[in-house]
């Protein structure tokens, strides 16, 4: 089932949770709503489910307006961050609940319920836990039971609110792969909320990056990572280095570096910031002609498994920058702390600091763990 | 092999704490109660049986336990609703209402009894209105129930409130997403979660009602065979210096109460075990 969201707004007192959101979700798609806490992603999900009412705007399921349909008639499966399992019921009864509360006319018989629940428990590979109570299960098992419970009513849409947020890293990684496989089997329209960029990049067909109640960018994981539309998306997805400078008639000067930026042909001495990914920087031993490098000193070397991360201190202004390279590449020229290098960005993106976008910090932390 | 009561534990002071508990229970509960049992041994079995099975005494058991059960049931349902309102909704004066819940505990029971009698008597505010449609409350068994409802009101509210506060709203939302109506959500999700607290509240209210004396004697009218409660019979016998008769009735009351409370506790234990932690 496709979902169309039109001009949706929601306020909580003076706080704007959602500001005029438009979004189309195709049938069978797995979409991630990604953003920092308080960006409105959970509110959007809850409005789609009908657990919250919008102040303005529309939500259409298959082109049909849903405002008048209460939660229980929307046929959405909702998975909560903290599972929300029924503690006093066994796993079996938890999964069977949605079938048992159907109006008598549509309620399946006991044998059918049993067959359906067993099928679902088989699907999540937990059929051996049918007689346990939720408190006897691990977090990962509980969340899979919650998912089976949501699937039991054959929903048209599956909504997951930070489904793996309360789990430890290892289980989280396992479960998100498992969710992706499950989605590929069931082809159900699914929307999941996360603040974990890695999770969104790995699982989703499309990512909707949100900030302050607005959508910053919609695109495939590769699009949002490789071509962020706004400075916010740049800083939120992955590590980033910032270089401050000025744009003037098609060129941007960032310290010693000079870059051609035809898109800012008309800029006149405008304040600008360049965004460079740590793995998009080459380190040279000698400067190049044509102002394409920045002189720096290696101030730290971290060896992180298959990657090597170097911290550089720019000679001109003492600002820090990060560079990542593979172990192999590092082995070819093992730089040491104190070495002078010349950093050459392979790829960078310049945004003008018009009065609207706030001044961003020089070095931004990684997105995970926010 | 050595018999060990003590289990290894990181918490110190097991011996001291257990000793204190036993001493305390002995001093406060066991010794006074066993005195009643010892006193009754002055009576022979036939004398004892004759005293505790006179029609007047049997009628008083029926009234005491019956009215207590009804009052506790009324307060269980009313208490659930009040606790629900106090937890789930916010309205002006909520704190005031919340504080008022405990008033029946603080008020001297005689004051409550006199006030209720004045209200429910045939010439009282409420009693006068009810008299018009032919309902008499004061000086009938109904009056006993009214007084018992009043004094045992806070128990269920106070036991259910914290449990209701801890109940996650998400669980109800999950039920709604699965297609449950509000009633089904209450019946299958909220009520089972509240059941142990409701049972505890009911037990406390019931026990309180069985022992109540002060407020009831004013409103009950104390007609033998009709509106006379067992505690009053005991006091009457004491006033006539019939100590053995008084303790005999007291012992029967104690045994019945203890068995009922034990039964409820077993029920509680069984329902907890079923929904193993």
Helix content of chain A: 10-25%
Structural class based on helices, strands and sheet pairing of chain B: mainly alpha
Q: Distance between the terminal alpha carbons of chain B, to the nearest Å?
A: 34 Å
Question: What overall geometry of chain A do the principal axes of the alpha carbons give?
Answer: elongated
**Total number of beta strands of chain B:** 0
Strand order of the largest sheet of chain A: 6-7-8-3-9-10
Q: How confident overall, as mean pLDDT of chain A?
A: 86
Topology:
The complex is a heterodimer of chains A (about 375) and B (about 280).
Chain A: E1 3-12, E2 15-25, E3 30-34, H1 41-49, E4 56-61, E5 64-65, E6 76-79, H2 91-100, H3 110-123, H4 139-152, E7 157-161, H5 169-186, E8 189-194, H6 197-203, E9 206-211, E10 214-219, H7 221-226, H8 231-236, E11 240-248, E12 251-254, E13 257-260, E14 270-276, E15 281-284, E16 294-304, E17 307-314, E18 320-326, H9 327-332, E19 340-345, E20 349-352, E21 363-364
Parallel strand pairs in A: 3-8, 3-9, 6-7, 7-8
Antiparallel strand pairs in A: 1-2, 1-4, 4-5, 9-10, 11-12, 11-14, 11-21, 12-13, 14-20, 15-19, 16-17, 16-19, 17-18
Helix pairs in contact in A: 2-3, 2-4, 3-4
Chain B: H1 14-40, H2 45-52, H3 55-88, H4 94-100, H5 103-106, H6 109-120, H7 125-132, H8 141-151, H9 154-166, H10 169-177, H11 182-211, H12 214-220, H13 230-239, H14 243-274
